[in-house]
Structures are given as C-alpha cells and as structure tokens.
Amino acid sequence: MQTLCGWIPTVIGIGVRALAYRAILRMEGRAAIERGVRLRFANRIRLGSGAYLDEGVYIHACPQGVQIGSGSLIMYGSVLHTYNFRDLPHAHIRIGRDSLIGEHNVIRGQGGVTIGDRVYTSPLVQIMAVNHVFDDPARSFVGQGLTAEGIVIEDDVWIGSGAVITDGVRIARGAVVAAGAVVTRDVPPHTLVGGVPARVLRQIDGVDHTDGKTVFLS
Questions:
Q1: CB of 81 within 8 A of CB of 62?
Q2: 187-197: per-residue pLDDT in tens?
Q3: Cβ pair 87, 68 in contact under 8 A
Q4: Start-end of H helices in the chain
Q5: Does 81 qualify as catalytic in the annotation?
Q6: What residues in the chain have per-residue pLDDT under 50?
Q7: Does residue 23 sit in helix, strand or coil?
Q8: pLDDT tens-digit profile of 37-58?
Q9: How far apart, in whole angstroms, are the C-alpha atoms of residue 172 and residue 191?
C-alpha cells in the first residue's frame, strides 16, 4: 500500500492516501499523510481526526502502538519509534490533541512516552524513554541492560529547539523548556527551565517578559 500510494505528490496524493491508508491504519475521521511517510506495523498506529504526517516522517509502532490525537501535527523528518527487541512492558507513544511535533524530532518510546494536549516541540528535540546501564567497567555497556521508566509531558508544554528529555522525567502542565536544555529530572508546573542539566530559571506567573516586542495572536 505504501509503495503504491506513498509517492503521489500534491493534494491529490494526500486525498488518495487518506482513503487508501484506512486499510492499514486505524483512522478516526480524516487525516492527512504527505508523500514519503514510512510506517512500520501500521495496524498499530491510530490517527485522530485532522492529524497530519509531514513528508519524511517515520513511525515504528510495535508493540503497544503509536497514537496521534485529533488535530496534532508531526512535522518533516520526525521519527517516532517504539522498536522493542527486549520485550519491555510499556513501550508506546501517545500524543494528545492539537499538539505539534517539530521538524526532525526523535521520540523513542521503549519505556512509554505520553504527551498531552497542546504540546509544542521545536525542531531537533529528542525525547528518549530508554537508557543504557554502564556501571560495570569490566563489561561492555551493550551487555549490561537497559532501563526504561517512561516520560510524561503534560498539557500546554513548550519545548525549545535542540532540547533533550531523558528517561524517567515528568514535565508538568504549562512548563517551558529552553532551547538546548537537557532535562534529567521532573519539571514543576508553570516554570521555565534551561541549562545542562536543566534547572528552574523562573516561575511563569503572569509577569510580562516580552520587553515591548510585538505579539501576534492566531
């Protein structure tokens, strides 16, 4: 199916794929899939109404699947991956409604990744719900196993470009992660965090920090 329909350009291709991919995906209402999207274990992928997969997106959905909520957008070149050769029990990716996964993001869901509603990630963000054990210097890390605790990103979170979210982290509602941050511990609600490792820079408390810049609203 992907070989037959995946290459067709323009809105004609989007229309053809919206119909044809219903045979291999679980789709609620209409979703838009651009050309060049690659899907593995497509029967474990669920797209909500109005979901959008941009060109070059790759989704690998075993074993517990990938769910993308209504109105959510997965932008160019992003990878959503739950490949699970060690039988990890919670491998999945769940993205809520009206969220945006920016260009060239990588989401590794071996420990489970849950992303809420209206979450925006900027380009080149990495969300990695898996980690190698490397404590024994006498053995290669390859043979020391993995940990996979999972990552939760609550509603209304914005993650800046190039940030890395490591396994076991919860980012609470309304938080903002600065560009380039490496988040290694939980982020409190309505805080701005940044740095390596990330720390709280300030509370988001209603004080205007736009410094007179023009604000454009949708």
A1: no
A2: 999 999 999 99
A3: no
A4: 2-5, 10-20
A5: no
A6: none
A7: helix
A8: 999 999 999 999 999 999 999 9
A9: 9
